[in-house]
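Q: Can someone sanity-check these two? First one:
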Amino acid sequence: MGSIPERILAEANRKLGAGHAGLHPAEEPVSVGTERDLAALAEIDLAVAVDADALALGENYRTSEEALRVLARLGDALKPGTGRRMMVQTSMPDSALFVALRRGKPIPYLEDLLVERARLGMPPSTEMLALEVRGDEVPNEVADQVKTLENATVLGPADVQRGRRDGAGGQRWLIQGELSKARASLRGMVQGWRDSGLTVRVDADPIDL
């Protein structure tokens, strides 16, 4: 929390028009936060998303729609009525993501994403599981069991770097296909691995797997 520097007021008035921005009589008119602060964010007059490209250019294939979700939530915090604004810092103003955000029409953008996902064999056109097993030493039997999953394309294992907290390394697999049989088998495997002291993480897409 803090007061607004004069240079920011000058830039806001240059963008929005003279007289649109000024100092609020309250001592702390500015809130600075991250995504986790959106849930408790009260209605605001001006929303500013700094470095939105960091949201949009992540490595996960779900990054772009997650960016749209977060930015839309920020825009939804604006008070109703005229004179409210949302400013987004980006080097890609003409990208499909930011055009959809600016127009307030996400459906055509998301429909295009679905077509691209289907072309690449990604969810929701197919099911996908990311399986990560960590421990002081991951037995070879774990990889052998993963290979037995039915009707599944199994990619991996890839080595996982040792964590900062527990110091444990591990292995990671990407599992794709029609996974109803694989899920049934995997439940027993996961429980057995955990009972043996291993740490297991399963990330499913769609999440209702």
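And here is the second, same format, sequence then tokens:
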Amino acid sequence: MVYLVRHGETTWSLTGQHTGLTDLPLTPRGAPNARSLAERLRGLSFASAVTSPLQRAARTSDLAGFGAVAEVDRDLVDWDYGQEGLRSTEILADRPDWELFRDGCPGGESPEQVAARADRVIERISCHHGRHPAVFQRALQSCHSRPLAGVGTGLGGLSTANLSALSYEHRFAHPVIRLWNDDHHVAA
């Protein structure tokens, strides 16, 4: 099982702006929400923790109690949106038929490029003999292909500081969502 954690709240996650490589800090509310992940994850045993190099993910990892052990993985940077800071409505005004998971971002990464990065991360973290990795990022929740084909692609509305868990149904080796967008630990 792979535990995925989305970074805590930023100003752009509040406004709905596309935040890929823009390195924004957590908001005053984002920090305690990220800290609440430590309690939510209590009792789980993790083989490793990896984080995006962007401060919103690294700080979330630190506040959740993984600061000393989390390794930075450059493949976990968020989707390169090209023209960052735009909202989907602004892109749709110029390109009414635009779909992120089909078309990628104008001037940014394609879904295939993001999937290739995600595949590399999954390959590196997948062999932990029953112990789970924790991944602090958003890219894996946003778009990935093999070996979790179809899980998460196009599933929107991700809360900040949420927890998701992906694994396989062992008998048939089908990818399954064990937990998705759990934010019960986050203050309203």
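A (reply): Looked at the second one. Strands lie at 2-5, 46-51, 71-72, 132-136, 163-169, 174-182. The CA atoms of residues 1 and 130 lie 8 Å apart.
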